[in-house]
User: Fold this.
Amino acid sequence: MKLTTNLATRRYINQRQLDGWLLGALVLMLVLAGYQVAGLAQNQAEISRLHALTAKTGGPSGPKVSEAQLKAQARQVEFANQLIEMKTVNWLGLLDRLEEVVPAGISLSEIVPERNRGLRLRGVVRNFDTLRGLMEGLERSRSFSEVYLLNQKESKVGSTQEGITFEISCKVVPQ
Assistant:
């Protein structure tokens, strides 16, 4: 028994269904195009209204600003920019770089960012050799420059703990 299949006996594309989908897509595209044209017309009307308003009021010039007001505004902007700059410290990157250079035996109690990429470190160390190791590590690092020991003094914590409190200033090199 030999089976034969004649592929030409029926249509494999449902023409009615295809025409329905194409008609639906065309209607959807016409609706979206109409929506875009309506938005464009609304925008043009708004632009025309604004042009008429500026022509009526004599142009885009506003009230005159005095020199004192301008300087006060510039000071406020400068202050705001300084606040933004201080808040934009990449703390994770900075702490990673500090972790690379701070030797064991040092307790940092304060890390304060300053203007112009400055950094102030305060902490406690058991002996001066460890403090010197921190200073040398900061100076060797490519991440820090202008390392200065601002303050050091011997301190006593409790009845048995002795150490040196210190304050270091340095600049953070941008990377």
